[in-house]
């Protein structure tokens, strides 16, 4: 019987790393994640990457190897389109935030970024520049935006240009860090699924302001925005206004991505005016 490409890749990986009892636990836009057994007793994760995101996933995997388990999931080995790594099942920061413990989640988020941004000897190869990540914002047709929100788009694009026109130090960036990409483990909170960028460290916390998922009432709160900016600025030694600037322009960028995909942007339209206002007042 002919196997599908996924079945072939899975079987090869299972044999290569002597794994048993694979169980599909998630399919994402980028790949399939299996829970597997190693040595007949230890749980591990096996991710099979989809071909259309091979380059992006390669950057993310390179970054995970660079982190070496400090603040992020540990990668044991990589071969072709298969990634063999640590199994995490302790829940996400999103669960913590949505359960009424958002302030605690913010502190944990900041601590995770501290670990990811620890100085390390080598700079991982193949990462994408942060400026390139904003192509969708700079190249979008403003007519895609609701008529009443086009001023928000214009302010986002202008603010982004100001931020990029003022150079800062550059660091490797997870690039897609949000509450549901940080999971609890026996080793503490660990980041998963990095995008693999490099650029301004202030961008790393931008996605936190429009998250967690499915919690618009949590995110669209001026008091919360101010308090998050305070925590991130103090704990990470970053400029508060620049944090808020990147938070605002990332919300605009995310709205552009969603519009291109045909998705609603209600969440970003709720939080974006608050972020721009906080940036103006900072």
Q: What does this 3D model show about the protein?
A:
This protein has helices at 5-16, 54-67, 93-98, 102-116, 130-133, 135-139, 150-165, 216-219, 222-236, 240-261, 266-281; strands spanning 19-27, 31-38, 42-49, 75-79, 82-86, 128-129, 171-173, 182-185, 188-191, 197-199. The protein is α+β, with helices and mostly antiparallel strands. Strand 8 (182-185) and strand 9 (188-191) form a beta hairpin. The model has no long low-confidence stretch (mean pLDDT 94).
Task: Give the helix/strand layout.
Blueprint: H1 5-16, E1 19-27, E2 31-38, E3 42-49, H2 54-67, E4 75-79, E5 82-86, H3 93-98, H4 102-116, E6 128-129, H5 130-133, H6 135-139, H7 150-165, E7 171-173, E8 182-185, E9 188-191, E10 197-199, H8 216-219, H9 222-236, H10 240-261, H11 266-281
Helix pairs in contact: 4-9, 7-10, 9-10, 10-11
Defining traits:
282 residues, 11 helices, 5-stranded antiparallel β-sheet, alpha+beta, 3-stranded mixed β-sheet
Oligomer classification: single chain
What is the H/E string? Answer: HEEEHEEHHEHHHEEEEHHHH
What is the arithmetic mean of pLDDT? 94
Backbone CA Rg: 19 Å
Strand order of the largest sheet: 1-2-3-5-4
Major β-sheet annotation: 5 strands, antiparallel
Basic shape: globular
Helix content: 40-55%
What ranges have pLDDT less than 50 throughout 5 or more consecutive residues? Answer: none
Structural class call reads alpha+beta
Q: Summarize this, please?
A:
The chain contains 11 helices and 10 strands. With 282 residues, it is α+β, with helices and mostly antiparallel strands. The strands form 3 sheets. Strands 1-2-3-5-4 form a 5-stranded antiparallel sheet, sandwiched between helices.
């Amino acid at each position: 019987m002919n196997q599908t490409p996924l079945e072939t890749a899975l079987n090869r990986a299972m044999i290569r790393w002597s794994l048993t009892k694979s169980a599909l636990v998630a399919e994402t836009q980028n790949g399939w994640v299996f829970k597997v057994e190693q040595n007949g007793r230890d749980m591990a994760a096996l991710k099979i990457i989809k071909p259309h995101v091979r380059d992006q996933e390669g950057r993310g995997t390179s970054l995970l190897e660079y982190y070496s388990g400090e603040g992020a999931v540990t990668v044991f080995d990589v071969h072709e389109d298969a990634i063999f790594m640590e199994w995490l099942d302790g829940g996400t920061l999103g669960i913590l935030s949505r359960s009424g413990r958002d302030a605690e989640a913010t502190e944990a988020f900041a601590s995770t970024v501290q670990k990811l941004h620890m100085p390390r000897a080598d700079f991982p190869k193949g990462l994408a520049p942060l400026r390139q990540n904003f192509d969708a914002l700079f190249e979008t047709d403003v007519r895609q935006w609701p008529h009443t929100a086009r001023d928000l788009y214009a302010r986002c694009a202008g603010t982004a240009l100001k931020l990029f026109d003022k150079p800062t130090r550059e660091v490797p960036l997870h690039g897609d860090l949000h509450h549901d990409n940080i999971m609890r483990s026996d080793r503490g909170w660990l980041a998963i699924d990095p995008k693999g960028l490099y650029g301004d460290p202030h961008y790393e916390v931008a996605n936190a302001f429009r998250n967690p998922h499915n919690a618009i009432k949590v995110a669209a709160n001026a008091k919360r925005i101010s308090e998050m900016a305070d925590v991130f600025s103090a704990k990470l030694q970053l400029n508060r206004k620049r944090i808020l600037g990147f938070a605002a322009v990332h919300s605009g960028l995310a709205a552009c991505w969603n519009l291109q995909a045909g998705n609603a942007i209600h969440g970003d339209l709720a939080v974006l005016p608050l972020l721009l206002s906080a940036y103006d007042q900072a």
